[in-house]
Amino acid sequence: MYYYLLPLGCQMNLSDAERIRTVLEEAGYTSCQKEEEADLIGLVACSVRQKAIDKVYSKIHKWNQWKEHRPLITFASGCILPEDHRKLLGRFDLIFSIQDLPQLPQMLRQYGVTTALNGTFPALRDEPPPPSETGLDSYWKVPPTYSSSFEAYVPIQNGCDKFCTFCAVPYTRGREVSRPSGEILREIETLLDRGYRTITLLGQNVNSYGLDRHSREITFPELLDRIGALTRGHPLWVYFTSPHPRDMKEDVLEKIAAYPTLAKQIHLPLQSGDDTVLTRMNRNYQLRDYRSVTDSIGRILPGATLFTDIIVGFTGETEEQFLNTCAAMEEFRFNMAYIAQYSPRPGAVSSRWADDVPQEIKKERLHRLTRILEETSGAFTRSLPGTTQRVLVDGFDRKPGFLSGKTEGRIPVRMTDPGNIEPGSFVTVRITDARPLSVAGEILPSSGIAPGTSEQALAIPQGDILL
């Protein structure tokens, strides 16, 4: 029997999908590339944005029409708000919390589907977990079936305790729970053995890692220290997302500075550049606090790139408040900003407030911020032609004859394809051209470091600028 899995939303959902694949394949299913060919279709949903949940309804409507002509079972998991869960319950055959993933084969058997579960790892079992083990502990024991041979997502935490008024995550994933550090380090060791080139540590608020386990677990800076020591000498970059500005301390930045494998790129969500809006968002910092963190980044990690998230049109946002966000964008000179139009989510505090910024104004503000981003990021990318940069090739560009990749700072690079470079290889690129959010260049001869090659065996040229 064949299955098709569609993950929507953030990197955490992509990571969840990798573990769902493992469970389904252990149960005897085989992955297929087309949903039309599947006997079982799963969707890793996202209630955080209205656009994503709209896609869920569109997909399940189509799949349910297919059921009139052939046997088909559908399921959903992921980030689903209680209200969306109630609405979807009668549309999908199965809806389950991601922490109940190990019981999916049993759910399918109860639905009348025969599975071939072979029980090769402890998390897949019919009996309840031990009393000392939470649902997430059992879920994290499921080894992922990675979707890439060189880029991996490693969850270190689930849930969030911040309760920003616009955010649905505490209501979809619950309160913060940290994954045991021993499991995290063992998964990273496995990835190193397999020659992975990038690892991204995932959590809704990685800074608070370990705090929910008190004296039983290490802190986030200590986790970075152990990962830096473990990965020393390997050709890879380790990233993390997302930190909260209120909790971002210099000890984290100092650990990044201490280890070459900890990437010099920081994703620090700002959300708004206006103090009044930040207060209404319950972000628990003001612009001066954010500025203090970015000053520390510039001092401790000179040359590091800075990414952010921005919401435009938050309920009650005035033109003056939006202009403060524009000023903040110009001040912090982000290399990338993920800008979203505000949409109220059921259950979040702000859903009880009037969504009083018209859609056309939200769209116009998004375009204005995008233009500022192109100016600030463009000033940086235009400084790069003539330099050499270390780049990880991640695939083939849409334009024939070119490869795509990213620098350590996650600046996209288009490169001429010499015909002998595999995705997952590190190369040295001479930058020849720049656009506002990306650069282009030529791969220098004999610069490829293929997957599975150790850094000790090769001298890796370093860029003129650390990105």
UniProtKB/TrEMBL annotation:
Keywords, alphabetical: 4Fe-4S, Cytoplasm, Iron, Iron-sulfur, Metal-binding, S-adenosyl-L-methionine, Transferase
UniProt EC number: 2.8.4.3
Domain MTTase N-terminal: start-end pairs: 1-113
InterPro entries: Elp3/MiaA/NifB-like_rSAM (IPR006638), Methylthiotransferase (IPR005839), Methylthiotransferase_CS (IPR020612), Methylthiotransferase_N (IPR013848), Methylthiotransferase_N_sf (IPR038135), rSAM (IPR007197), rSAM_horseshoe (IPR023404), rSAM_sf (IPR058240)
Function of the protein: Catalyzes the methylthiolation of N6-(dimethylallyl)adenosine (i(6)A), leading to the formation of 2-methylthio-N6-(dimethylallyl)adenosine (ms(2)i(6)A) at position 37 in tRNAs that read codons beginning with uridine.
TRAM domain span: 382-445
GO molecular function, one term: 4 iron, 4 sulfur cluster binding
NCBIfam families reported for this sequence: miaB-methiolase (TIGR01574), MiaB/RimO family radical SAM methylthiotransferase (TIGR00089)
Boundaries of every Radical SAM core domain copy: 146-379
Protein name, UniProt field: tRNA-2-methylthio-N(6)-dimethylallyladenosine synthase
Gene Ontology cellular-component terms listed: cytosol
Cofactor: [4Fe-4S] cluster
